[in-house]
UniProtKB/TrEMBL annotation:
Listed Gene3D superfamilies: HUPs
Protein name: Universal stress protein
Species name: Streptomyces cinereoruber
One Pfam family it belongs to: Usp
Similarity comment: Belongs to the universal stress protein A family.
UniProt-listed SUPFAM superfamilies: Adenine nucleotide alpha hydrolases-like
Residue ranges constituting the UspA domain according to the UniProt record: 1-136, 158-288
């Protein structure tokens, strides 16, 4: 089955920015773009006149306006649009079978970080099996610098970060951009490292060379697969979220991985992804592992 990029639209400037970013990414990758708007008639338990036909026409109007604007901006794009009869989260997740990625809007910076992305966005990212890109609005356009690198965080073993690295390299190759791969590390707490792991660090010449070696080994298969992509390596002492954000100012895209975690109230996106989504100045791709 051929893949496509799917962007959720709801009539807001943020969703138009997401659709605009998705259109440019679809052109980079030679893929079609599908715009999706969720609407399902659900009568309210209120003493009001409720007209399902009028609401349905309004939903189609939202989608039509977005489709016309994206077609005007990107006339060479293969574009389709669809109203999906479901809730926003279920509707967008239901497109994953044929989606290369999902693209959603984000409201940007503000004083209450936990509410910037929105509950729908967090649920989509937490539940998705495909990469999800959150795009900030800049006058209805997806904000990203005209040049710059694709920034990706590498954590743990090569297997732990394979999905995020693969997405970052594929994106950079499609755009003709470089990759900046970042690995953050911290000083081990007393007794935290086993004698075996400390022996490996000693053999590598210390903790910093050990972390640099771990990053190189994680990057090796992707360098081999994408030999034309230039790669910069950055290893820094600090928390993963802080180190990634410090490198994100000139990034076209920040890519982070997401483990399948469940909390007391459902799936979680993880602290690094949460920090990136709410504080990074560029679009953020969250890639599920495995």
């Amino acid at each position: 089955m051929s893949r496509e990029i799917v962007a959720g639209v709801d009539g807001s400037p943020e969703s138009l920015a997401a659709a605009d970013w998705a259109a440019r990414e679809a052109l980079h990758r030679g893929l079609p773009l599908r715009l999706a708007h969720a609407w399902r008639w659900e009568p309210l338990d209120l003493p009001l006149v409720q007209d399902p036909e009028a609401q349905g026409r309004a939903a189609h109007a939202v989608l039509r306006e977005a489709e016309e604007e994206i077609a005007r901006r990107h006339p060479d794009l293969e574009l389709s649009a669809e109203v999906l009869p479901d809730t926003p989260v279920a509707a967008l997740l239901g497109t994953e079978e044929r989606a290369e990625m999902l693209v959603i809007g984000s409201r940007g910076h503000g004083p209450v970080a936990g509410f910037l992305l929105g509950s729908y966005g967090q649920q989509i990212i937490a539940g998705a099996t495909r990469p999800v890109v959150a795009v900030r609005s800049r006058d209805g356009e997806g904000a990203e610098p005209p040049a710059g690198y694709v920034l990706v965080g590498q954590l743990g073993t090569p297997e732990d970060s394979a999905a995020a690295l693969g997405f970052a390299f594929a994106t950079a190759a499609a755009r003709g951009a470089s990759v900046r791969a970042v690995r953050a590390w911290s000083l081990p707490a007393l007794y935290a490292y086993s004698p075996a792991s400390m022996r490996l660090a000693d053999e590598a010449g210390g903790l910093v060379p050990y972390e640099e070696k771990a990053l190189r080994e994680a990057l090796d298969p992707w360098r081999e697969k994408y030999p034309d992509v230039r790669v910069e390596e950055h290893v820094e002492l600090g928390s993963a979220g802080q180190v990634l954000l410090s490198q994100s100012g000139a990034a076209q895209l920040l890519v982070v991985g997401r483990r399948a975690k469940r909390g007391a109230v459902g799936p979680r996106i993880g602290s690094v992804a949460h920090a990136a989504l709410h504080l990074a100045p560029c679009p953020v791709a969250v890639v599920p592992q495995g």
